[in-house]
Write a structure and sequence with these properties.
The protein is mostly helical. The chain has five helices and no strands.
């Protein structure tokens, strides 16, 4: 491959990594930003723990771009791939559980083990998104 093709390949890989990383961090950063703004404006602690799940499309597209960049760079493929799989499994599994248990419809009170399991799935999903975001930062530095 000639040098200009290598430069274009590297530039595309860097672009994919940067855009993917930004998109992956959007759900986490917006959650923090709205929490800070809401807390300051109301004088009470405000935190929308569902926002990362609501912004899943950003995380999914970003993680997909990161996976593509990782494939091209031959780095961090496993971490990003597992992170994306875990994020989707925790979010999807948690939603299925909330529907099956009646939490989603309000038929079951949000207390006890059903509530803990549903909230834990959202927390684990958010943790997986953070891991993907950290892997994205690492990939951007490497690319």
């Amino acid at each position: 491959m000639e040098e200009s093709q290598l430069d274009r390949k590297g530039a595309l890989t860097r672009l994919l990594a940067v855009v993917g990383t930004v998109l992956v961090w959007i759900p986490i950063l917006f959650t923090i930003l709205t929490s800070v703004v809401g807390t300051v404006s109301s004088g009470m602690f405000r935190f929308d723990y569902l926002m990362p799940a609501e912004l899943f499309p950003f995380a999914f597209v970003g993680a997909s771009l990161l996976l593509w960049a990782a494939q091209r760079a031959r780095a961090r493929k496993t971490l990003i791939g597992w992170g994306l799989g875990c994020a989707a499994a925790f979010l999807g599994g948690g939603q299925l559980y909330a529907v099956a248990s009646g939490l989603a419809s309000g038929a079951t009170e949000p207390t006890g083990w059903p509530w803990v399991l549903a909230i834990s799935s959202i927390a684990l999903y958010s943790l997986a998104v953070v891991v993907i975001g950290i892997a994205g930062i690492s990939l951007v530095r490497r690319a």
